[in-house]
Amino acid sequence: MPEFDLIQRYFTRSAPGAILGVGDDAALVHISNGMELAVSTDMLVSGTHFFPDADPYMLGHKALAVNISDMAAMGAVPRWATLALSLPQEDGAWLERFSAGFFALADQHRVALIGGDTTRGPLNLCVTIMGEVPPGQALRRDGAQPGDEVWVSGKLGDAALVLAYLQGRLALDVGTLAATAAALHQPVPRVALGLALRGIAHSAIDVSDGLLGDLGHILERSGVAAEIQFAALPVSPSLQPYLAQALGRRCVLAGGDDYELCFTVPAQRHAEVEQISAQLDLPLTCIGRIAAGKGCTLRAVDGSVMKIKETGYDHFA
Ligand code: ADP
Ligand code: MG
To answer: From the CA of 27, how far away is ligand 2's center (Å)?
Structure first.
């Protein structure tokens, strides 16, 4: 199938949010009056971010989800996406499933696919996402202040637990696998939370490379320190039994692929965060405090300082 027909067949949909979508040399969009444009790119590489034989529907979902998650972390409304694809061969069944997974999530968030590029090569998925945020209201990494509480959404570590299982590093029973697999394959970007935190959170980041590493980015950019209570970290009943092992603790602290939001809020606004949690029906957990200084201190239940070896996933470390 010629490249143009492939694009036409699998990646061309009406794009009501755009003036001009797929098919021309560039797409045209109109940014809502007075809004700032938020732009972010995330690439998924076969063998690094997913197994080469991964379910294409889930890959389509995930390639977009990790990008929408970046909009959530900025407090932006995701609006448009482009998709650069490198494919080893033309596989109609694969493309059908991949695009179905991609568009299912795109429709859910009313994100329009407005362009991209398609080439032959090692399997590689690169999405650029664009969204809108009112001037000055973006949730940045550099706004944390001493006295803020540190919060995190959802549960941490399930995705890393499943990955450890798939890599043969631990055994999981069928029930546990069923309960946790979606965390790795179908992460839910926390867009509504990001929007609700505008004007409330001083800083935010999405947890893609592990809590400690990502929180570390907030601390560094904001020039502050944090004290985190290990016992407060939200983990699923599936992961709970593994906390006695170093591998389980590493999943929670440095697992990666969680796509939850970690954010800081002035302590006097604690109740507002609890209200947001109830409104969104999404668990939000206060896990510690921002303080003056540098670095992150992790406290065990007995108050002793826990040593942290693994702080996150770094492709170049
Ligand atoms: P050009 O030669 O100008 O780069 P292409 O032939 O690469 O154009 O692409 C034709 C049109 O299809 C463009 O509008 C481009 O944005 C779009 N497109 C290409 N690949 C994809 C894709 N994987 N998903 C969505 N749109 C795509
Ligand atoms: Mg091109």
So the answer is: 12
Q: With CA atoms as reference, report the closest residue to 136 among 31, 284, 34.
A: 34
In this prediction, the residues of the chain whose per-residue pLDDT falls under 50 are: 310, 317
3-133 belongs to which homologous superfamily?
PurM-like, N-terminal domain (3.30.1330.10)
148-299: CATH topology:
Phosphoribosyl-aminoimidazole Synthetase; Chain A, domain 2 (3.90.650)
Which CA distances in Å does 21 have to 28, 67, 85, 110?
A: 7, 19, 17, 14
Give helix 92-108 / helix 56-74 axis angle, nearest 10°. Answer: 30
| Cα 156 from Cα 236, distance rounded (Å) | 8
| Predicted local confidence at residue 312, as pLDDT | 55
Query: What is the model's pTM?
Result: 0.95
* 8 Cβ inside 6 Å of ligand 1: no
From the CA of 25, give the closest atom in ligand 1. 3
